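A note from the maintainers: we've had questions about how concatenated examples are separated. There is no special marker in the raw files; a new sequence line simply starts the next protein. For clarity in this README we add a label.
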Amino acid sequence: MHPTTYLRAEGLALFLAATAGYLVVGEPLWLYLLLFFLPDLSMLGYLAGPAVGARVYNLAHVGVWALALAGSGSGWGRRCSWPVASCGSPTSGRTGRSATA
């Protein structure tokens, strides 16, 4: 297979996993759409020139930001943004925070 096929499959898998995780958490649809299109606002960096625009656009499209957002939910006193066992399920009542927090 061509490398582009692998990259597209990876992107599709990430999209489906992120969407499924978001649906499990049960947050509103408007927030999903906002978070989905938020990185595209980085195109405005091109108004400062092509070099600055490329840096801003590429920085906004790094996958680590999505992972950081997914893991930060429990730190804000909410269920984890990603449905993993250590964060508790939406119906379990657990918040993922320790008793000393």
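[label: protein 2]
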Amino acid sequence: MAIHQDVGDGWVLEQGLERTEAKQLIEHVSDELLALAVIERMVLLRQLLGDDVADLLLDLLARHLVERLKVDEIEKALVKLDL
């Protein structure tokens, strides 16, 4: 019965492939975590900006209403002076 010397080398080659797969898995998981962090920051930024835009719109609406009331009061006073 002949013994092949390549049997031992095959085991070493298999271990090398397993290490490579593990390294690739770690790199893949790291890439996925980085992508997730970027997406989370984008969502947070959108929420913050969305709140700011909503606040700005409400502020502009309130200012418009106040200015409109001021103009109405001035116009009423002018009308009374004309009478």
